Amino acid sequence: MRDAEGPVIIGIAGFSGSGKSCLAEALVAEAAAQGLRVAYLKHDGHADEAPDDWEKPGSDTARAAAAGASATMVASKHGFLLRSRQEGGFPEWFAAIRAVADVDVVIAEGGKRAAHAKIAVVRGEDEWRQLLESGALAIAAVVSPDWAPMGFPVPVFRPHQAADLLAWWRDRWRQGALAAPTVPA
């Protein structure tokens, strides 16, 4: 599934409570079951505006960060957790994943206004309209539990169709159809 540029990126966008995390988990499980190496990236939009609270108060890494460390890492022979204080967005985050992990696919949750192609997770027509009005870009497919409008400009999948969605995404990626953002009218 990997291409010459690096791992395939599958973006997921939607509002809080729409089912983004459940879809991400299903896609991760399906890709892993197919033998693909998977990375998961979660954009925490709430952390963009709130104080930094990712590390346990008083932990060694929290104290090092407070002392001025721009990156901290907790590591063992089983793996590591890297934390960077560099500012950036999805391009920088994808570059960081490529730098530290050899993966075939990145499931990227959040970032509805980011340029990479993504799946919109919506609970109905009103939520779809609100997502577009909020500036969502590059929507290539929709996942919705109970809504399939006639003439919809992109394919619609149900939440239980992770295998079908992954196969569709893989085919579209190979065709180059997801390289450039697509925005429904």
From TrEMBL:
SUPFAM superfamilies: P-loop containing nucleoside triphosphate hydrolases. It comes from the Bacteria. Residues 9-144 form the Molybdopterin-guanine dinucleotide biosynthesis protein B (MobB) domain. NCBIfam families: mobB. It holds the Pfam family MobB. GO terms for molecular function: GTP binding. Coiled coil: none annotated. The lineage of its organism: Bacteria, Bacillati, Bacillota, Bacilli, Bacillales. InterPro entries: MGD_biosynthesis_adapter, MobB_dom, P-loop_NTPase. It comes from Alicyclobacillus acidocaldarius subsp. acidocaldarius (strain ATCC 27009 / DSM 446 / BCRC 14685 / JCM 5260 / KCTC 1825 / NBRC 15652 / NCIMB 11725 / NRRL B-14509 / 104-IA) (Bacillus acidocaldarius). This is Molybdopterin-guanine dinucleotide biosynthesis protein B. One of its GO terms (biological process) is Mo-molybdopterin cofactor biosynthetic process.
